[in-house]
Amino acid sequence: MNTFSNPLVINLKNYNEISGDNSIKIVEDAKNVSLLNHKEIIIAPPPSSILTLSKIKVPIVSQHVDDASLGATTGFIIPEIVKSYGAIGSIINHSEHKIEHSQIRNLVRRLRDLNMISIVCADDLNEVEALSQFSPDFLAIEPPELIGKGIAVSKANPSIIKDSVQVVKENSSTVKVLCGAGIVDKTDVEKALELGAEGILISSGVVKSPSWYNKILELSSVLK
Ligand code: G3P
């Protein structure tokens, strides 16, 4: 069951900055911020570190899951196993790891059956329209051309957030919209919320910041 309303979801990607023990440090920073301000902070680390990081007691989601079977399958990341490692959900269809829409539909159902949350990414309005019909917990609009560029989607392309919120509303009363790509400071977050987003999906703005703690505190403080 989704108990999150306005999360800051931090995707650690495969950045070198979070390799080895640094991944523990960033998750501990996130935990300390959430203990201070009680905001919803979720971390998406590389799947291989989920078991270790989930022990820090910060909500962890996988960066990706495959629609492969539990049992004799090799090299796939599957919902049942990431749940057993402590993940509470997964990102699906990130623009850096696209999958077929039929698989997205299956995975959203499979995660829900496991009481895990789904954060489905969409590159554009067409994908927002198609994927919101699968009723994920969160639909994250992330124009690929702005990812990692430090130019916030909420300022560079505000209409895509507004339009996504509208399209999602037409298709579902439960799906919440997250906004991501280029978010770097709290004014970007404030703008996204004004446009109707309910939370943020971010990566480089946190991972490449000189102080993870301060940046997570700054960004989460303006979320509800
Ligand atoms: O998953 C989050 C993401 O793709 C946005 O990346 O670096 O622009 O915050 P970034």
- The CATH homologous superfamily is termed Aldolase class I
Strand content range: 5-15%
CATH class: Alpha Beta
Overall body shape: globular
Structural category is alpha/beta
Describe this protein with a few key phrases.
single chain, 224 residues, alpha/beta, TIM Barrel, eight-stranded parallel beta sheet, binds SN-glycerol-3-phosphate
How would you characterize the overall build of this protein?
- The protein has ten helices and eight strands.
- The chain is α/β, with parallel strands linked by helices and 224 residues long.
- It has an eight-stranded parallel beta sheet with strand order 2-1-8-7-6-5-4-3.
- Strand 1, helix 1 (22-37) and strand 2 form a beta-alpha-beta unit.
- Helix 1 (22-37) runs parallel beside helix 10 (212-221).
- It is globular, with a radius of gyration of 16 Å.
- The model has no long low-confidence stretch (mean pLDDT 97).
- The protein binds SN-glycerol-3-phosphate.
A few lines on this structure:
The protein is an alpha/beta fold.
